[in-house]
Amino acid sequence: MFKILVVEDDTELRSLFCRVLMKNGYQTFRAGDGEEALEVLDHEYVDLILCDVMMPRMDGFELTRELRAAGMTMPVLMITAKDAFGDKREGFDAGADDYMVKPIDVNEMVLRVGALLRRSKSASSRKLTVGNTTLDYDTLTVRTPEGETTLPQKEFQLLYKLLSDPGHIFTRLQIMDDIWGMDSETDAHTVDVHINRLRDRFRGSDSFEIVTVRGLGYKAVRKA
């Protein structure tokens, strides 16, 4: 079960976020400001931090900078009433991974949390072997008996996603959200283009093939 730390000084909002997240299968911890959050992190491992910006004692920007300076890499989703571009830039510069402006749709919040966790899980896995094919996330390379190929980032991430869960059908929307991001203006046709490129590259693979599931999406199937 993924663990999420909710850092929000508004008691009602903090309780609402925790209820919604727990309803969707997450374990939650609570903090009223950045200093309380650091105290929680002294004793608990968390997979993601949901963080308000405007809080007493230590705000969300300062908390995120502290986390990154300490080498902590868990995703940070900032939630705030500050909607100016400069505020968003400060949040991302501090090390935030995503940003939502109040009032928010809690259902969208859950979607963004899920996407951030999936991306974080994939990135932390680093290497993946399927049959005689090995993917190295750090170098974006695919090693096969024929040699080593360095892929463009999005192609690599797409192949890694499919091979991380062979047989699982991923919709185009899921792929777009996880790899290009929910706010991307890229259309779903881009997914098809990248799939076709991967098929061309690995058409003779003895380890896997990429299958189209009509009306649903794509999946990777192991051959060996």
Structure description:
The structure is a single chain. Helix content is 43%, strand content 24%. It has helices at residues 11-23, 34-43, 60-69, 85-94, 106-125, 153-164, 172-180, 189-201; strands at 3-7, 27-31, 48-52, 76-80, 98-101, 127-130, 133-136, 141-144, 147-150, 170-171, 208-213, 217-222. α6 (153-164) crosses α8. The two termini are 31 Å apart. With 224 residues, it is an alpha/beta fold. The mean pLDDT is 89. It has 8 helices and 12 strands. The protein is elongated and about 60 Å long. The strands form 3 sheets. It has a 5-stranded parallel sheet with strand order 2-1-3-4-5, sandwiched between helices. Strands 6-7-8-9 form a 4-stranded antiparallel sheet, covered by helices on one side.
